[in-house]
Amino acid sequence: MTSWGYSISRPRSIDIDRNDMSYSKELLREYPELQTCIACGNCTAACTAANFTSFSLRKVHTLVRRGEYQGMAEELEKCMLCGKCRLACPRGINTRQIVLTIKKHLANRSR
Amino acid sequence: MKISWKEYQKDIADDHYYYARSCIRQNFFPGSEAAFLHILGNDLGRDILDDARHTSCTGIGYHSDIVPLDTIMTVVARQFALMTEAGYENFVSSCITSFGIYSEALEMWHEFPEQEEKAHEYLYKATGREFKKPKNLAHTSDIIFHHRHQIAAQAKHKLINVQTGEPLKVVDHIGCHYAKIFPKVGVGGSEFPYVLSGMVEAWGGECIDYPERRHCCGFGFRNYLVQANRGCPVANSKKKLESMAPYKPDFIVANCPGCTMFLDRWQYAISEMEGTLYGQDGHGIPVLTYEEMAGLVLGYDPWDLGMQLHQVAVEPLLDKMGIEYDPGAKYLGKNGKFIGKPEDSLIGCYTK
To answer: Is ipTM over 0.90?
Structure first.
C-alpha cells in the first residue's frame, strides 16, 4: 500500500442539505422557545460540568440544530442536570428539559 | 464599472508572438507546448518565437515567499528585454501562474511608475539590458481561443460522440490566476470566463454548468509544497470532482498547468486512497489541456500529443470521438523506443 504522507482533509463547510434535519425540526416544534436562543453562552458559563470538562451546552444545541449528532450522546453524559443553565438563560429557556429531551431522543436513535 | 461579462473582452494579437514556456508543464504534459507551437506555426501559419534564452518567471518561489518582489520584477523585466531584443511586441505566456505574474507586474508598474523605474535600473545593473513593455500580453489559451473558428474550419474531428451523435459533455476549468486577480485581462472576466467554453462550443461540444464550476482546484505552490499539507489541496479537487460527476462529463479541459495536473493526478490518488472513480464504466474522467483538445480536433496522433503520460486513461474519450490510434504504440517514444509503462493501479485508473 502506498504511503501518501497525508490524508484527504474533510471539508469544514456545513452542508445543511446533507444533514438529517428531521429531529432539529421536531425539537423546534416541541420547544419553539429555542428559536429565541441568541447563542450568548451563558448556559455554558454557568455550567458546573463545563468548569471541569469540555462540555458546552451552547455547542451541543448548535450541532443538534444543524443535524449533526456525532458524539452527542457521550457529550451529554457529562451534564449533571443541576439546572444552573436554566437560571442563567436570559431567554428563560428550560435548558435542563432540553438536555433531557435530546438525551432521550439520542437513546431512541441508537436502539 | 462593467456590468456584463460580455464587456470583459480583451484584445488578442493576431500574429508575431514571443513565446514564454512554463517550467512545470514540460514535465506534467510535455506534448502540449510542442503541439501549441506546431498548431500556430503549421496549421495556422503564424509567426511565433520559441526563445531558449528565457527563464522561469520564478512564480513558484514568489508565491512561496522565497523570491522577493524586486527580484521577480527584475526577472519579468529580463523576459520583456529578450522579447524587445528579438523584435517582438506580443508576449504569450504558456503558464497561468506566469500570466498572473506578468499581469501583476504590468499593473503594478502602471499604478506605481517608480517601481517600473526600479525594474529598469535593476535589470540594467544586473545584465546591461533594457526593455519595453509588451503591447499585447496574452495567455496561450487566449491565442487558441482567438483562432478557434480557424481551427474549427480545419477540424478532422468534432467534440461529438460518434456513436450517439450527441455533443460531448465537457467540464471547462479556468486557472484562478487567469482572471481572478485582474478580471479585465481574461475573456469574460473572472465570473464568466469564456476562453475554454468558447473553444468547446466552436468545436461542437457542450459545457457543463455544475455547482462548483468556479471552485479552485486546490493547487497553490505554498499549499502543496509541503507533503503533509496536501490533504487540503486534494480535498478541493475532490469537491469539484464530486460536484461534476453526476453530470457525467466526457472529459475535463483546463488552461492552467497546475489545475490540469491536479485534476488528473488526484483522481489516481483518490482512487488509491478511497477506491472512488468519478467517470463512467469504471474509468476516471480524462483531463486535457486545451492544446491537446485542439490537437485532437485537428487530427493529431494522441501519442504525439503526449497523452500516454496522463494518469487517467484517454482511450474511452478517443473511442467516443472516433479517433483511430494504435494501442501498441502508446508507450513508444518518437524513435519507437519503449519509454516504460506505469504499473496498474488498484482499480485500473490509468490503463484502459
So the answer is: no
